[in-house]
Amino acid sequence: MTAYGGLQLSVYGTLAKARILNNVFYNGAVQTSSILLNLLLMPYITRILGKDALGINSFGQAIVGYFVLLGNLGITIYGAKVIAECRDDKNRKQQKFAECVTYQFFFNVIAILLYNSWVIFQGDYIYFLFNIIILTSMTDLSWAYTGMERFDLIAVRNLVIKFVGTLLIFLFVKQHEDLSLFIIIQQGVLLISNVVFWLELDKLEIVPRFSSLTLSLKNIFNPAISVFIPSVFTSLYLSLNKVMLGYLSSIDEVAIYDYPNRLVRIGITFIGILGTVMMPRLAYLHHNQSKQEYQNKTKDLFRYSLLISVPAFFLLELVALPLCDIFFSETFEGADMVIKIVAPTLITSGLSLYVIYVSLNKMKTFLNCVAIGALVSLVLNILLMPHYGAIGAAISLLATEIVVHILLLYYLRSIYSLRWLLHYLFKIIAICTSIYVLLVIVLGDILSLLEMCLAIFYYGILYGLCFLLYLRKM
Question: Which of these, 86, 333, 371, 419, has the minimum number of CB atoms within 10 Å of its CB?
Fold first, then answer.
């Protein structure tokens, strides 16, 4: 390699790192703001609307989620991936965008027709309001911005709509009967905000235009369906729990399961920021056969995810009870146990293995793993939900996540050093376990807000010291 070639690679590497850090910053800013607004809103809506109304909301979102999957039919991941791969070719990028949008609109129209057939069959017409979610999915262009790594535009939009939506809920949702208004506000602001994405396409050097439906289906259907099928099975064990809980137990159990789980999902969302912003970069590196840099980036992804997810898991176990007293009313009995059971999913989901499999084009292997997971979830749901309700759903989710991620890691053994990953994981777990046991001995049962704050403070200090003295050098 010439000196000039080496300089080019060095400059490219520096710019790539700068772009990733920039994307992490934007995503971190919007996710942190979103988390804070969710934490502010949750105690209000759980007390104003109550578990029955929120159970209907959770059940409706879970049901419509499957129709959204059908409407997108893999376009969210496929679109981001294909735009990332051809972003340097303006004409091809324009053509692929037009094909993706045409494909997206066609299947979302089908999804709307099928969903409304379900609503008529169900007989409870409040579920008509969830059509807004499908319309939002139909007009969403975040995949194009993700593929171009324009996370700054996504971040600003998401921050504004989240703030406006939260403010409107505080202003207008005042009583238990305001569930319909809550759904309209919560989903309507997302739909309206999608207009911004369409108006700013010129920043991606893309013109909003459609393609031939026949051409779109011919070019997209087969590769997109390979992404769509795994997402169906993933949703089966993430969302099917709420659907089956509504049928096998009761609507209020859906709320008791879903809203504590949302607290955990907030943590997963925050931890998964790095995986989200690195997906187009990993796809680009794999497409250009930059094997060594690809492995370095994924190793960094694993390391930073575990450094955050493992201590977050132990901290949730420590403060689950006072946390539930803050965010939920006394009617959410058992919410603390749900949090404790599903908290380990912070670690599994934080690894962002889905992102890695997508970037490697190994969706068939991923499909096999999540299919087994879906089967495990289905069997456990049938066995546990009628007797244990929300607790049974939480156990089912945890068991399924563990099975799926063990399989996913096993099939990556020829690409990555799993010995390094497990060694690193066990060291962090050992440190966090020691801190957890020490605080339980010193503080005893953590019940009040003051005790929770002290536990978080002491935990942060001790883990920070361990990181500086030991983990940072690993």
Answer: 419
